[in-house]
Write a structure and sequence with these properties.
Blueprint (H helix, E strand, L loop, with lengths): L16 H17 L3 H7 L4 E10 L5 E10 L7 E8 L4 H17 L5 E8 L7 H15 L8 E5 L5 H15 L20 H19 L8 E5 L3 H12 L3 E7 L2 E4 L6 H11 L9 E3 L1 H5 L5 E4 L18 E4 L7 H9 L3 E3 L1 H4 L2 H15 L5 H26 L3 H20 L4
Parallel strand pairs: 3-4, 3-5, 6-7, 6-10, 10-11, 11-12
Antiparallel strand pairs: 1-2, 2-4, 7-8, 8-9
Helix pairs in contact: 1-3, 1-14, 3-14, 4-5, 6-7, 6-12, 6-13, 12-13, 13-14
């Protein structure tokens, strides 16, 4: 297939720093993936994007209109899959970047999905439960022509949860006239959700981290760990690390950070957060800022907050042996290069936080078959998937002299490209 020139104006629609990061990573990986130029160009852009205006009646009787998006990057391997986030920073370009990363993630784990991502630009912390429910139901109604169990399956993401997915599932089901639990994943177990889905992303981070530590000759049980983020991913990852014998010395969230060199009492910290809403002022610990936390000397640094946390500005001061990306895009392209030059290993997001989408896939399969698995079965299947993907990435990195991120992207790109070559371009 001949090389294809890109259109000069195509970049404008997706203009956002995060999308530029995703594209730069793709371009760095493509020379090692050995795929056709036309396929590489097609993978650079999403297949479809939807821009919506979502009207919502507020509790005070007034109305508001919120911008919303859904981006589907690739359907070469199957229906698209990805989260819904409610955040003030949601943009089309951000959703496009996250959808692209989800494509590589699903392909790397050999799940029959492509990547998608969506969201509503709003401040959920300033909205009541009733307002969020009305927003969710109207957003779902607007998305009806674009989502479906065989087309695009949403899941929870930033500031969305099981309840959000329950409202989405119910709204979709009301429109088609029967219950469709497989339209979303990450929903309550009572309506077809899967056990272990809530813990899957955080637990997956630790499964991959433990495998990497073993490869590097640094048993996880002996390591000092720092965790940025203490929500669904970071909080569970911290607990899993401690259960494996690691010493978690510091964590942070939006309220601040806490440090105890002897190791934090995580059950007590979780109880504190449930009562006070954040880790700040936790007893028997030293208060630190998020910036200070990222630069603490440690063996494992888990990034489980949000994008662009380790950058060119602070990467030279990061003092760790291993970075594990529990969030999407927490390390900038420039920081990646600095960390690699310093000999610091980075476990990339498309591998390390893939536990969530993997158990979402298990949930979808269970819903389609109306046959549900036990917690132990799901955890074992998740471990098998993640360790297989890690081992393939590690071998490729060694064979081709690549960083773990480049190897993970190359592995994902090759899976998608193989499907695209087999199917061909239509028409």
């Amino acid at each position: 297939m001949a090389s294809v020139e890109q259109g000069a104006s195509t970049e404008l629609e997706w203009d956002a720093p995060l999308f530029h990061t995703a594209v730069t990573q793709l371009e760095q990986a493509l020379p090692h993936a050995d795929v056709d130029d036309a396929i590489g160009l097609r993978l650079r852009y999403p297949e479809q994007a939807v821009m919506l205006s979502v009207p919502v009646k507020l509790d005070d009787g007034t109305a508001a209109v919120f911008p919303a998006y859904r981006v589907q990057h690739s359907s070469a391997l199957g229906p698209t899959k990805g989260g819904i986030r409610y955040d003030q920073e949601v943009t089309l370009g951000e959703c496009a970047a996250l959808a692209m990363w989800m494509t590589w993630k699903c392909a790397l784990l050999r799940l029959p999905y492509g990547g998608a991502k969506g969201g509503v630009r709003c401040n959920p912390r300033q909205m009541s439960q009733g307002e969020i429910q009305r927003l969710t139901r109207r957003f779902t109604s607007e998305l009806l022509p674009f989502i479906g169990p065989q087309e695009d399956i949403p899941a929870p993401d930033m500031a969305t949860n099981e309840q959000t997915m329950a409202w989405m599932m119910d709204t979709y089901s009301m429109q088609v006239g029967h219950a469709v639990p497989e339209i979303v994943t990450g929903k309550p177990v009572s309506i077809g959700g899967s056990v272990f889905r809530h813990e899957a992303t955080g637990a997956g981070v630790v499964i991959v981290t433990e495998r990497a530590c073993a490869r590097l000759g640094m048993p996880l049980a002996r390591q000092r760990c720092v965790v940025q983020g203490f929500g669904n991913v970071g909080g569970i990852a911290a607990t899993e690390l401690a259960e494996r014998g690691a010493r978690v010395i510091a964590v942070s969230d939006v309220t601040g950070g806490v440090l105890n060199e002897a190791g934090l009492d995580l059950p007590a910290l979780h109880a504190w957060v449930r009562e006070h809403g954040g880790v700040a002022d936790f007893a028997e610990s030293q208060h630190i800022t998020n910036a200070e936390l990222l630069e603490l000397p440690c063996d494992v640094l888990v990034l489980a907050a949000r994008e662009d946390q380790v950058t060119a500005e602070n990467a030279t001061r990061v003092e760790t042996r291993l970075v594990a990306e529990g969030a999407n895009g927490p390390t900038s392209v420039e920081a990646d290069e600095i960390l690699a030059e310093r000999g610091i290993y980075v476990l990339p997001d498309v591998l390390t936080n893939a536990g969530g989408v993997t158990v979402s896939y298990f949930e979808w399969v269970q819903d389609l078959g109306r046959l549900f698995w036990t917690r132990n079965e799901i955890r074992a299947r998740l471990s098998d998937k993640l360790t297989d993907a890690f081992d393939r990435v590690w071998r490729l990195a060694e064979d081709r002299g690549l960083t773990l991120r480049s190897a993970a992207l190359v592995g994902g790109i090759r899976e998608v490209a193989g499907a695209m070559e087999a199917r061909g371009f239509y028409p």
